[in-house]
């Protein structure tokens, strides 16, 4: 049996029915964690449960009450929480003025509102256990990606939330890890209105990101940017934004002909 730092840890993972969330749950299972896996796809969650022993918590976090209900069900299933991985999110690609009001609200509701309610509901349990919160953001939140303006804004908001919350809850013994991935090869792009259509950066495997995410939790790290080379443009953007924008315009990989998701 695993005997590392996460052996026996009680962990809730949202967005666990596919992609980064599913890969993360599978890696956590190899570390001996006790899992509650939340997501919209019941059959996928059942399959994940059979493979990992995770307690399946089907539900749609776009429902305003679902985030808090998910935490309650996870607490009932696990008897407490040591780690919460808030991973559920959606994207949208294209000119901002082509978004509908419903598109705008859906991204805001899932990427930020649902996360806030999930964290708010989980914090008492994490304070009790001295646990850790993991928020999965995006490099778009650091750099701002043309054609993904509102998605970038929601992920930037998540990054700001992580920074401010960390300062609030660290004295109470709760860690906050912000995970900032680049392009990850998942069905995320199939579910938004347009698929991934750029030549670079090339997508990385969700399993590789999941291994890095779990290592960051085990090491108590506050931040993870993956793959690591993305730290360079992020630092350039923060320190020399004018130079960053000039280089981005010069070297940006133009999208191929847009295809329907």
From TrEMBL:
Family note: Belongs to the short-chain dehydrogenases/reductases (SDR) family.
**InterPro entries noted in UniProt:** KR_dom, NAD(P)-bd_dom_sf, Sc_DH/Rdtase_CS, SDR_fam
Q: What is the species of this protein? A: Acidiferrimicrobium australe
Family matches, as SUPFAM superfamilies: NAD(P)-binding Rossmann-fold domains
Q: What is this protein called?
A: SDR family NAD(P)-dependent oxidoreductase
Superkingdom of this entry's organism? Answer: Bacteria
Q: Keyword annotations for this protein?
A: Oxidoreductase
Coiled-coil region list: none
Q: Which residues form the Ketoreductase domain?
A: 9-187
């Amino acid at each position: 049996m695993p005997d590392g730092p996460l052996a026996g840890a009680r962990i809730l993972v949202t967005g666990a029915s596919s992609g980064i969330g599913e890969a993360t749950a599978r890696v956590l299972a190899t570390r001996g964690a006790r899992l509650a896996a939340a997501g919209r796809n019941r059959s996928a969650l059942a399959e994940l449960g059979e493979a990992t022993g995770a307690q399946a918590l089907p539900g749609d976090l776009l429902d305003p009450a679902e985030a808090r209900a998910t935490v309650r069900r996870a607490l009932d299933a696990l008897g407490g929480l040591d780690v919460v991985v808030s991973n559920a999110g959606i994207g949208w690609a294209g000119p901002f003025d082509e978004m509908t009001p419903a598109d705008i609200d859906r991204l805001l509701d899932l990427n930020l509102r649902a996360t806030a309610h999930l964290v708010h509901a989980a914090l008492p349990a994490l304070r009790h256990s001295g646990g850790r919160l993991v928020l999965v953001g995006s490099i778009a939140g650091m750099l701002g990606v043309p054609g993904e303006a509102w998605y970038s804004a929601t992920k930037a908001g998540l990054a700001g939330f992580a920074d401010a919350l960390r300062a609030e809850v660290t004295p109470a013994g709760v860690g906050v890890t912000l995970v900032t991935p680049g392009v990850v090869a998942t069905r995320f792009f199939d579910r938004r209105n347009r698929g991934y259509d750029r030549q670079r950066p090339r997508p990385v495997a969700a399993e590789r990101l999941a291994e890095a995410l779990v290592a960051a939790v085990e090491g108590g790290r506050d931040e993870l940017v993956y793959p690591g080379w993305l730290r360079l443009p992020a630092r350039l953007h923060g320190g020399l934004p004018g130079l960053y924008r000039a280089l981005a315009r010069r070297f940006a990989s133009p999208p191929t002909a847009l295809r329907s998701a």
